[in-house]
Amino acid sequence: MPEGTDIWAFLAASPLLWLSLTLLAFQAGLWLNRRLGGSPVLHPVLLAMGGLITVLLLTGTDYETYFEGAQFIHFLLGPATVALAIPLYDHRRQIRALLLPLLTAGVAGAGTAAISAVAVAHLLGAQPRTLASLAPKSVTSPIAMGVSEKLGGLPSLTAALVLLTGALGCLLAPLLIRLMGIRDDRVKGFALGVTAHGFGTAHAFGISATAGAFAGLGLSLAGILTAFLLPLAVPLLPGMGS
Amino acid sequence: MPGMVPALLVLLLCQLAGEVLVVALGLPFPGPVVGMMLLFLGLVFRGGVPDALRGVCDGLLRHLALLFVPAGVGLMVHFDRVLQDAWPLLTGLVVSTALALGVTLGLLNVLIRTAGRPGRDG
Fold this sequence. Notes:
The complex is a heterodimer. Chain A is globular, with a radius of gyration of 20 Å. Chain A is mainly α. Chain A contains 13 helices and no strands. By secondary structure, chain B is an all-alpha fold. Chain B has 2 domains: 1-67, no CATH class; 75-122. In chain B, 78% of the residues lie in helices and 0% in strands. Chain B has helices at 4-25, 31-46, 51-62, 64-67, 69-73, 79-84, 86-115. The chains are: A mainly alpha, B mainly alpha. Chains A and B meet through α2, α3, α4, α5 and α6 of A and α1, α2, α3, α4 and α5 of B.
């Protein structure tokens, strides 16, 4: 009989263990989140991240070893980004009908998110690499991480900031919607998609199907705008111009 | 699932073409985003989404949250930086999210109301 530590040494080095644990942690996160009333602050992804980081720290496993297994899931971010073309195509008529208002609000919203985040963090003394990781935090992770890498940020830090932004957006949106007296579900959904990406889109589907569709549109539009415009706008951002 | 392999192939080829274009032209955009634009143009040109492609894409997008986990765990590598910049990061996140929501909600609300024809309330 091999010792327990031998079995652990074998498992800890195999991609299978960390791949399985990633799926298990996510499933546990989904279950726990439902148990706790589906609060966006305790999002399944945040719970899974917390659980996995705890396990890695307790077992003294480094991130590189973990990623050998988890990379199979991570790889799918690329194809998933390409897949965003489908909701975009599905909404092409609504986009064309409201093209100018949506583009204007999308540019203004995505721009406000990036510029104000970087400006506030810069004023409070954040380092340049932190700023580059923060700038694309409002758009969906696969796009945000790609942009962060292009800007010289840390994609994994961006991923975490994207998740926090999503949770914050879902918390703040109902307050602002009530405060500003917004009744139009298209407006509610679009704003949720632009500022809180996938989290906001899921939240918007809870308001109505129209809100959900416009959130999906906001998510795609903000993602594209940020991917194409943010790298060009870097010299204008405080603390990031070279 | 019939047509799953061609559907996956379409996604991967769009991404591949996007990555190649980005490198070849020295574009400052992520390759998969260019791949998304290519697929969108392809769908407009074809005039519809094949069922198998929709199935694969729905599957990917429905489980999008799971795909963030491996990168999110990478936060453990940056604990020092996050702790060092915790205050600027948190303040920046809260302020910018509130501002961006306010701007988007207010602006689109006004623009739709002025552009929309009467009797077309959401």
